[in-house]
Amino acid sequence: MFRTTLFALTASLLFFASQATAQEKFSSITGPLDVKPVQASEPIQVPFITWGGDAATFYANGGLDTKPESIYGKSGLKLKLTPGDDFVQQVKDYMGGKSPFLRGTMRMLGQASEVIGTDPRTKPVVVLQLSWSAGDHIVSRENLKTLNDLKRDGKKAKIACQQGGPHVGLLYDALAAAQLTNQDVEIVFVDDLTGPNGAAEKFRTDPTIDACCVITPDMIGLTGGVDSAGTGAEGTVKGAHVLVSTQNMSRSIADVYAVRHDWYEANRDKVEKFVAGYLQGAVQVKKLRDDFEKTQRMSPEYRNLLAQCQTIFGEEVLPTLEVDAHGLLLDCNFVSLPGQIAFFEQTGNLSGFNSKLSAALDLATQWGYASSRKGFDPSGFDYHKIAELAKIEYSEPPRIVQGEGVMEFPDDDFDNDTIVSFTISFEPNQTDFSVDRYGMEFDRALQSASTFGGAAVVIRGHSDPTKTLVQLLKAGMEKGIIRRTGQQGAYKYYLNTQNGSNELDLGQTEAMVKLIKSGAFEGSADSPLQTMQAALNLSHARAEQVKQAIADYAEKKGVNVNLSQLQPVGAGISDPVVSKPASMAEAKQNMRVEFRIVKVNPETLSESDFDF
Amino acid sequence: MNRLLIAAFLVAGGLSQISSTLGADNLNVVVILDNSGSMNEGMHSGGTRIDAAKSALLRVLDQTPAGAKVGVFLLNAGPTGNWLIPLAPVDKSEIKDAVSNLRADGGTPLGASMKSAADALLQLRESQRYGDYKLLIVSDGEASDANLVERFLPEIQARGLLIDVIGVNMAREHSLATRTSTYRNAGDPKSLEQAISAVVLGESSASNANDAGESDFELLASVPSELAAASLAALTGMANDPVGESGRAGADNLPPIYPNSGTQVANQPNFPGNAAPAPPQHGGGDNGGGGLTFGRMVIVIAIIIVVLRAFSFIAKQR
């Protein structure tokens, strides 16, 4: 949600001229920076940003300065929490030794990677993942239905996005899901995350902008709600709707803390206490938040915490406790201790540290923030020890979550709920979906399932309708409804009705449909409805085979997967690419399996103890 | 690739896979079992018809793969109602008791039973969507509610349910013979068992679709694409609403086309060893001809009454 009104207020002025055509490197924005040792004096300066995940830091610290009775106070830490929404300033303080900590998203660290990662002393060690975002969105105009539409018929969509903030990563992931890059769209960079110089206002005032990356309050302002479309009334934009949200693309924005390598080596115990204290605080904060959400009765402890957030972030950012401050926390998926293990230790996690690091460096180098890849290190903690320090029971997250698909059958909203889709073809007679041939698509499906943790991956089989149409003609002839004349290659058909016999042309469509619906073609040996049902069954069986092939592939590769996200569906002949194929080539276009990432209520996904 | 090969590919690539890819859990069958009084009569080979039907059912249900859903619906309610075996995954331990308690007594209300059985299948299809859905009628005579059969049959077929009929020891063809997917006559317990087995455990008719050897694309060439698309939409819009309760199909809504059997052609089922049904019999016969609807019967009776009254009036005058 309020990822910050201040993000890059200073930075942005330096950071990127609005609508810059060429990307300025991060090192040009900061200018040359000397690396200085971290100040030895206490308190230790720790930056925070405007995000729900940081409420747990305040909770653990008892405020901006460590209170003796707080979690951090009891563990012997002495911290001073300082505003870090100006990320460029954060980097300067980090390099200059004012603070050993960096607070941002993995992509933000990636954008600064060349600056902070070149000198071994300042090479970041990522020590904590606070959360996944569930409060960032891309809102588009009516004509864009899915992420695939961001580039349609060669036309590039124009997308407003804050430069240098968390939405750059959101946009990168959204484009990647449709196999697009920043070259396939036109990105219009704006200075601020929200407010008059934010992307939402740009979208509102400039009709040439097709989409914008926004936080929750702006999304509601433009559309009326995550599942609504703007009407044009009350400040909404007519037809504006959510194209993709981190509620579904739930493993896109990872909020993290990193520390300088030299300081980490010298103060490992302090870093462990910092991480353990945060995790302990987060458990409490999540419980307070969820209790209020469930009962709508606010405990004094939660009220104090929200009031503290309001004081720290400012009343202009959080005008009310019940809606704005609570909403800020709702937009944040705390990942807790099992989340640390999943993120840092599970090699098969396609949204884990290695995967996110690689994507962050891809973004940095491809979008021009850096010219070389300078990586970060993971903490290498012993999480049994961290669990003990945090007084949390140690538990490892599952690698494979079992479960049936989440949807009964897609209803009419299926198209409306599709975020992005891609298709694989198959040959007639094909029963196996081998890794050799479909490995890339399987990788993409697994990556989609991981990034879109709050969505279903619908595997939708399609059949070719040729056989059914032939059965329809044969049944018609068998029952005397249709008459055929002419020779092979030049047949003509006539529809017999009480009004006489008419050549089967467009004028007969209505009569033909009526006859089909009345069952007139049924009851003979050639049953079009039976053939259609058989095609439906076959398409479902194919989708099941593909799901099984992906599950086997994931197992073999050691990749994490939540099987309850994979939903095989048969579409049969209901949605052909070519309704009446004239050749095998056209018939083959219909023989396909489509993958659709579809919005679902995340609660319908298989119960897992862990929220990531 | 030559056209014949292409056509063969299409068929092979599509339909021949069905039997291999569809598991038993895709099979859903309701057997409508005639337990009317006439089923107590003997068969040529000894034993009563109902006993033959019972043992055939037991054997077939015993062979039914796990996961298949089979129900048995009786024309005349027994102690547990009309559902001798509710439509559900086959529970072999319960079947034996249920079937052994079966008695034959009562009439032949086939039309009403067809609706009940079809509605149960449609409800199941609404929740499952995939699979094969079949109605199997095992009977030795004509329906006592022929008007309902007339009314419901096209509606059931318009919903894409497959109807098979097995005549037990019937002298003549059943009136449904020419208007359902298959008709077989079983004159002895063994052939009855074979017939039930073929329907319950056999492949769907679609998987038996044999290609005429002509190119499917050529066959379709002159059909306009938009008409094809509209036809596909009509086919795929198959409803699961209860029979006789919607405006989708049925007698009231039939388009202006020859209303019934006069123009219909007998099936040529792909079941060697089963006699192809004879053309429909009009009038006469033990079975009374299914074409005589309730409405027509009322008119005929009214005419007879008028004629008789006229005769008695004339007689009195004399």
From TrEMBL, chain A:
Signal peptide boundaries: 1-22
InterPro entries for this protein: OmpA-like_sf
Keyword terms of this UniProt record: Signal
Top-level taxon of origin: Bacteria
Keyword Glycosyltransferase among record annotations: no
Phosphoprotein is among the record's keywords: no
Protein name: SsuA/THI5-like domain-containing protein
Classification of source organism: Bacteria, Pseudomonadati, Planctomycetota, Planctomycetia, Pirellulales
From TrEMBL, chain B:
Gene3D superfamilies in UniProt: von Willebrand factor, type A domain
Disordered: annotated span: 256-288
Ranges of compositional bias, category Low complexity: 266-276
Superkingdom of source: Bacteria
Record-annotated VWFA domain positions: 28-227
Entry-linked Pfam families: VWA_2 (PF13519)
Parts of the chain that traverse the membrane: 294-315
Keyword vocabulary terms for this entry: Membrane, Transmembrane, Transmembrane helix
Designated name of the protein: VWA domain-containing protein
Species assigned in the record: Blastopirellula sediminis
Organismal lineage: Bacteria, Pseudomonadati, Planctomycetota, Planctomycetia, Pirellulales
